[in-house]
Amino acid sequence: MSRRVKRSVAAVAVAGVAVTGFAVAAPAMATSEGAGLNLSGDFGAYGFRGAQIQDGLAVFCLDWTYDAPIGSSPASVYRATSLGANGSGNQHGVGGTELGRINYILSTWGGTGDNTTAAAVDLAVSSYLQNGGVDGMAKYVSQSSQGPAVLAAARSMVDQANAITIGGSTAPGSGKLYFIVDPNNNYQGTVEMQGTAGSTGDITLTNGFFDDNGNGIQDAGESNVKPNAQANTKYSVHGLPPEGATTYKISGTGNWSTGGGTVWPAEVDVLEFGGGMQRMARAIGPVQVQSNFQVSGMDPNTRSVVFAPVLSTTATTFVQAGQPFTDQLVFSPAAVDGLNNPWFRSATTGNYAPVKATGVVYGPFQSQPAESDTVPAGAPVAGEATITTSLTDGPAVPYTANTNTTAATSGFYTWVWKISAADQAAGTQRIIPEGYAWQDRFGQVVESSVVPMNITGVTEVKSAEVPLSGVAQDTATINSGGYWLQENAANVPVKITWKAYHDTSEQTPARVPATAIPSTATLLGTYSTQVTNVGNITTPASLADGGIQAPDAKGGWIVWVLSIDDQDQPRPGYVRPFSDDYGVPSEIQKIALPEVATKAQPGVKPGQTITDTATVTGTLPADGAELHFELYKATKNTAGEWVCEAGNLLWTSQSQHVETTGDYVSPAAPGQVDGEYHWVEVLSSTKAGEIHRGLCGLPNETTFVVDVTTKAKTDSGNATAKPGEAIFDTALLNGQVPEKGTLTFEAYRVFDGAKVCTDQTRIWTSEAITLDGGLAKDLQVDSAKFTPELSSKASTVYFVETTRDATGRIVAQGECGEPSETIPVDAAHLAVTGGDADASSWVLFGGLGALGFGAIAVLTAAAIRRRRQEATAQQ
What we know:
Shape: rod-shaped
Oligomer: single chain
Distance between the termini: 188 Å
Radius of gyration: 70 Å
Number of helices: 6
Structural class: mainly beta
CATH class of the largest domain: Mainly Beta
Number of strands: 58
Helix content: under 10%
CATH topology of the largest domain: Immunoglobulin-like
Largest sheet: 9 strands, mixed
Number of domains: 7
């Protein structure tokens, strides 16, 4: 307020001031100055800034540019909730909040007796109407020394006043519950008590609960009652339809109040003086406010419980033959005509409405069928399944469906599910759309399964034998066992793998599962290739193309195992794993080895060269073999066993290449001194090394170096045998005599001097004479004596001696007609009467007289024997 020495602005009537509130009785006393300061400003004027006392109470000016009403009594006093500006142009109107803050300042500091504080109150109160606030009023006090302190105190008062809550009213509260129904989900919506600001209360719902978590589930702590609700605030609600209802509404009621306790009202007392004088403000302090009222309301639209159940599925990608088709189902509600209500649950039990779905599996198809809205005509049915959602879980859990059949044929299969109102229980039919029918699309990839191809191979080796180091081969006849699956119109490639094992078992390998490969087998090689159709396929015949070579080891078997492994496939899962057994008869190849039989020279004379002969049979290595011979001096170890080793090796032949079977004669070994010698033949290949070595000391690989000389003799010691004289033969042995060998003498007789020793000329064979083995020096062996039969002709007898080893091999043998083995035999002087050997009478030459009958008979018989002998000898 201002009481000026000289007016700077003329007083004018209040114009454009909006005043609300109620009038109070006009006080009788005139105003007077209270605590305050005289302050000067930028205009050179000065005036009083502080409190006026009216009826004993401090009042403060609201219009600084108007005259102070000192000495005047107010024309009216009223409680204002808003106030317009005066006509000075330096002010603006204010509402209840500003008036409430003015009341707070007046009530807090207006009764002060401190002049600076009172001046600051004057500025702070007027600043709410003054353009520019406290700072806009600084020009009126800036020339006084107390000005800064007053301004600082005024700013502090305004800051504190602005920080408090102005609220409450003495007017009674009122309101109404307003519900909003979600048109897309009739269970959801909001409720709001639209009414007196700042009022609070509770709301109790019928057919609903407060869904504070927003999940559509009445969680712990959520109910149909909302305590301490705030006015003009929306709260989420969720429907709980009455049991058996298909339509319903949510309604609510509540007890509310406004105010309550001590509040700073949004108002202040205003004193009007008129005549261009200040409007004054007077504190009313805080007030006690409380107003109770009831509210109610109901949904504007009817809510529906109808929901439309659908499902989404994920079929098992691969189904093995003999297993059912499996699908995972997830149920959910869907929108129908814009409405997408959640799955129905009973308000009393909480149970979900049960929904039955039926699925059909169609197939097999050779490739993934094209997706379509309907099932193609003629699509084969492979199985069916039904699922009904549970009361307790409803759509909250997935369900697993298995068909009532099992997979039998490879191919693509696809599920189609449907939910039909006709399949539902009566209670469910009531809460889904009338005549409801839902079906998913045919041929969806996520709804499709593959029964892997049953690819098998019937295998057979190319040949029962494979040569050492040769390329082994196997042939598989590939079968599909049903469809050969297609992808992008092309057959799915299948990788097949052969594994070849080298089995060193002496017997043909037994058949066992491929998971139980015997310890006698080691992996020899692997060959893989891709096939896209049935037919025959053979492993490569060339190593360069990936063929598998027979091992460089001696003997054994190659055992093939054909397999199809899922992890190796270009499209894993599209083919059923398959494996042959190990040891299938048609999958075994014998590693063919050559066989060698030998026959050394049984005996030679000292110094003569020796040879051995190897007879090669069987199967030679793929690249042939090398053959050589070794000659050893017969030697035994301490155990009495023959040994052929470096210490007794005498000679090794050069190798000769062997490409075909047959007889191979060694080069001539150099002659040796008297003794026993053993041959060893060795067959080798460039890759396997030795593949055959003869045993040491075999009888047929033994050569005896021995010199046998003979001398035929007569009983008289003469060179020629007389008629009737005994003869014999003598052998003299120098060298190695075979242990348990034999010596046999044979005699041959001829009458014409020819050297012919045949079965026809043989006249005598001795008994075999067993020899003591060992190194002999001039060992003499005499034959038995025998007497050639009498003959009228002279003849010659040839002896032939034969020395054999224990096996019957001829170690040494004389030649027919050797001079030392020849005995001439004189003719007997016989006279025979008659024309032939049957003559019944004969006479001796030399003057013998006639004999008696008995003597003639004896001579006749002798003549008959002689003639037969002669006839035999001359044949």
